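Lab notebook page, bench 4
Experiment: in silico fold of construct C2
Operator: M.H.
Input chain length: 349 residues
Purpose: comparison with the prior construct
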Amino acid sequence: MRRSLWLPLWLSIILAGQFAPATELGIDGAKFTVNGKPTFLLGISYYGALGAPKEFILQDLNDIQRYGFNWIRVWATWSAFGKDVSAVDAEGNPRETFFSKLRWLVSECDRRGLIVDITLSRGNGVVGPKRLQTLDAHLRAVRNLVTVLKEFRNWYLDLANECNIRDDRFVSINELKVLRDEVKRLDPKRLVTASFAGDMNRDDLREFLLTVQVDFLAIHRPRHPKSPKETGGWTKRYLQWMKEFGRVVPVHYQEPFRRGFTRGWEPTADDFWTDLTQALESGAAGWCFHNGDQRHNLPDRKPRRSFDMSEKRLFEQLDEEEKAFLKRLNAKKRAEIDYLIATTLAVGC
């Protein structure tokens, strides 16, 4: 009798160990933490991951870790080039097999110690049809993601990509507050943000910080030749304003410039390097090696990079300048990044 009672107890302990999260993202002031250790989030765009074969994803994740990246950005509402790979539909309901694939990807990243950014967007026609256009639909998507992925602590939620743009992507401050509060009701420790297009002014920052109460800022800086050298100044400005408001959170450069976007300016490996080091030296908490399609290469817009990985994996689509940046990141210059990370994390902000 006593033996029969011990069996389910030991079974529950074993199962709990099997499903215990390996990687936990947190925040300490202006810094992110991973498993309690201050960590600079050095990431890469991986938007259309749910449309890539699993073997592509596994090879890419190996390369992502080889180059020292520790987070990826994946969209739960991605539809491009006639391929809808969204994890949720227009009303926020799960779409199989993509919803299950998202769960598998988060689990695989958890095992590897990688952080996952899961992004929602109402869409503007560029990456598929409009969706989540009502607050009810948007809430449904949030509830499905937070509930099904609750056991994993290695992901955060971007409630609405570039929510401040006044087109079909727009999500009001009041709606963002409702969405954020619903996440916290379901999972109080889940980190939440809402990405912002352009440089924030003081009033914008106050609303996101004190009204919506995002856990960190997710800034998409302007894309022009002077942008890389301006990042440090903007970071310091945000940190100073937050100190004045009495609440300091991480500044995360979740979607900087990329190649293939701006007509007349193709950022170089030096531009990526400058932007990254500017972010580090000024006290930012994260930065992304952004990539996407060649929007002016009509009609196919190839290479599409992370925007379409159904035929080629991401690292097979990067061009020579992007590879030059990765080589620099992975060679002796990597020591400079490691030093800057250690220095800024030790000093804090």
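Observations: Residues 1-17 have pLDDT under 50 and may be disordered. Residues 50 and 102 are 7 Å apart (CA to CA).
Next step: discuss at group meeting.
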